[in-house]
Design goal:
The longest helix is centred in the first third of the chain and has 20 residues. It contains 4 helices and 5 strands, in the order αβαββαβαβ. It has a 5-stranded parallel sheet with strand order 3-2-1-4-5, with helices on both faces. Helix 1 runs parallel beside helix 2.
C-alpha cells in the first residue's frame, strides 16, 4: 500500500511546491529528473517515475522539461515536453523533482542553487 500511494504523494508534493512559489503554475518550469524504472537503465516499462510525470503533466499546467540520460527520446505520453540534460534541466527549472537516482544526477544535485525548490524522493546526496 505504501508503494502504491507513493506516486500520488509525489504529485501532491509538487503541487505544494508550486503553491509555495507564489506564481501561477503556468509561469513555472518543473524539471522531472528521471523516468526509468530504476537507476542507470533505459527501461521505462512499469516505471513509477513515468506514471508520476504523466500525472503531473495532466494535472498541473506548468512547463515541463525532462532529464533522462538513458533514453534518446521521450515516450509518446510526454512528447509535448523537452528532453534535456540534467544540467540544463536544473538551470531552467523553478522546481526540480528527482524521481530516479541516476548516477549523473548526484553531481548535479550537489550544485543546485538555493533559489530552486527541490523535491528529492530518491535520496540523492545534498539534493535538498
Amino acid at each position: 500500500e505504501v508503494n502504491d500511494a507513493k506516486p500520488a504523494w509525489v504529485v501532491a508534493k509538487v503541487h505544494e511546491a508550486v503553491a509555495r512559489c507564489g506564481r501561477p503554475a503556468s509561469e513555472l518550469t518543473v524539471a522531472l529528473m528521471g523516468l526509468a524504472f530504476k537507476p542507470n537503465i533505459d527501461d521505462l516499462r512499469e516505471s513509477p517515475a513515468l506514471h508520476i510525470a504523466e500525472a503531473l503533466t495532466r494535472t498541473l499546467p506548468a512547463r515541463y522539461i525532462v532529464a533522462e540520460p538513458n533514453v534518446g527520446e521521450l515516450p509518446a505520453s510526454l512528447h509535448d515536453h523537452r528532453l534535456v540534460d540534467a544540467t540544463e534541466a536544473v538551470a531552467k527549472a523553478d522546481i526540480v523533482v528527482f524521481l530516479v537516482a541516476h548516477s549523473p544526477f548526484a553531481e548535479v544535485a550537489r550544485a543546485i542553487p538555493s533559489n530552486k525548490f527541490v523535491i528529492d524522493v530518491v535520496g540523492l546526496p545534498s539534493a535538498a
